[in-house]
Amino acid sequence: DAGVTQSPTHLIKTRGQQVTLRCSPKSGHDTVSWYQQALGQGPQFIFQYYEEEERQRGNFPDRFSGHQFPNYSSELNVNALLLGDSALYLCASSLVRGQETQYFGPGTRLLVL
Amino acid sequence: QKEVEQDPGPLSVPEGAIVSLNCTYSNSAFQYFMWYRQYSRKGPELLMYTYSSGNKEDGRFTAQVDKSSKYISLFIRDSQPSDSATYLCAMSAPGNTGKLIFGQGTTLQVKP
After folding, report:
1. DSSP SS3 for A84
2. Confidence band (pLDDT; 50, 70, 90) for A1?
3. Alpha-carbon distance B112 to A4, whole Å?
4. Could you report the per-residue pLDDT of A30-76, keeping only the tens digit for each?
5. Which chain B residues are within 8 Å of A58, Cβ to Cβ?
6. Testing the interface with B: which of A102, A103, A110, A111 to mutate, by most B Cβ within 10 A?
7. Which residue in A107, B3, B100, B106 has the fewest CB atoms around it within 10 Å?
């Protein structure tokens, strides 16, 4: 049984560019959440998707957007990249009933130069 | 003030020691409490999940929640070098369980 998978594993971009990160949830899960983890910090909630809609959003600007597909996989898009967007981006999957138990993928490490 | 406070350490102990990791929080609405383990350059791995107050044991790991003090703990017995990692506490409130609020993480090193 595959766990949560994310792609790519690493990414280098320059300021002002746009990036798309991808996530496939654990088999049987229908809800995907995205988190940003800066170096030495705990993950911060960006947003959550269920039934292809954004259900909740954390304190992140509109430059951060997402999408969920009918197969429950998800994308995180970040526009107009800033140096401060450099971080580990984590995807977590869960069941809509039981969202408190979230299972994380390995993350995508984004470096903005 | 952060909603969840966690001493970042680092914490260094000899193999076989009992380790105590702690978090405090300010939001009395939190009812779900989790501990995650994160190895270097990896995603967090769910270790323990507790609802409301009380203790929960799983092998060498024990999670405790004291809601009256807004304080949670994770104890690791007979610590092993393979336990060396960053430990993150996380919590959420009913009606908002999808949004996990994390502590900063405590880095633990278990020396052989």
Report:
1. helix
2. low
3. 32
4. 999 999 999 999 999 999 999 999 999 999 999 999 999 999 999 99
5. 99
6. A102
7. B3
